[in-house]
Specification:
The chain is of the alpha+beta class and 283 residues long. The protein is built from five helices and eight strands. This is Rubisco accumulation factor 1 C-terminal domain-containing protein.
Length: 283
């Protein structure tokens, strides 16, 4: 039996009464005891029903109170980090079949921008930097390891290169010239432009010129038209001389085979209306 909406069916007629449509029975003298017995039984039934109703009301109120009180909060366990999936070594599949077609160079009027390296031209050379003149000492100059990467092997040119393990010094990329590739013990040196050049260059006064010095001078033939690196007073100097100086004054440390400068945009020559000049001074 429901508690909230269901109720015990009982009659609301007073005991001993009957509907008005029915005629009241004529009481005889022999019936008073029976009528009294019926009245007593009706009163006891009403009391029993009233008691039952009170119990139902009390039960309803108790249930309503229990619903109004929030249930005790259970202790929430601390959040746990999601379990990391185990790292699995995925073996590449040998099945390279694709569900789509890959076009090639020259197919469907598609062409890559490619450049072929000529026989006399090689990829840029990676060299170590000994230091900067005039702070560079002879000891630092001589102790710099001769790292020359991208030297053209007999089978052809190199696309990929890497420095020797453990090298922590500075490096520089030079043009892929044959004169650099032929060096056996090269090193790069930075020199202020005002100290090396007397001519007007398209660079600022505080710019440096990077030169490559071949330190293998065991079979060096002196040439007064060439530039050399000299040991003067424990420091490195670079320049040309008319004749070989005495060892007491200066010692030859190597020959300069190439120089590279950083051209400034504001000092770069602009194109003119003459094609001959554009070929020489084009930006």
């Amino acid at each position: 039996m429901g508690i909230d909406t269901a109720f015990v069916p009982f009659s609301t007629f007073a005991p001993g009464l009957r509907p008005a449509s029915r005629a009241a029975p004529v009481c005889s003298r022999n019936q008073p005891k029976m009528i009294a017995r019926e009245n007593v039984q009706g009163s006891e039934e009403i009391k029993r029903l009233q008691k039952k109703l009170e119990e139902l009301r009390a039960m309803r109120e108790r249930i309503a109170k229990e619903k109004s009180v929030p249930p005790p909060q259970a202790s929430t366990p601390p959040p746990q980090a999601p379990a990391q999936p185990a790292v699995q070594n995925v073996t590449p599949s040998n099945n390279t079949n694709l569900s789509f077609a890959l076009g090639k160079h020259g197919e469907g009027s598609r062409f890559l921008s490619m450049s072929a390296v000529e026989a006399e031209e090689h990829f840029p050379r990676i060299l170590t930097v000994a230091g900067r003149v005039p702070e560079l000492t002879v000891k630092e100059f001589m102790e710099t390891p001769p790292v020359l990467q991208n030297r053209p092997p007999n089978a052809g040119n190199m696309f990929v290169t890497m420095l020797p393990p453990g090298y922590q010094g500075q490096i520089i990329a030079m043009q892929g010239l044959e004169v650099i590739a032929k060096c056996m013990d090269p090193v790069a040196v930075l020199i202020p432009a005002e100290e090396l050049s007397a001519a007007q260059l398209s660079i600022s006064d505080d710019a440096d010129i990077a030169v490559v010095v071949e330190r293998n001078v065991s079979k060096l033939d002196f040439d007064k038209t060439k530039f050399y690196a000299w040991a003067v007073g424990g420091r490195v100097k670079v320049g040309w001389v008319k004749e070989m100086p005495s060892p007491d004054n200066a010692k030859c440390l190597g020959q300069v085979v190439f120089g590279m400068l950083e051209e400034k945009e504001e000092l770069r020559k602009k194109k003119s209306c003459w094609e001959e000049e554009n070929e020489t001074y084009s930006a």
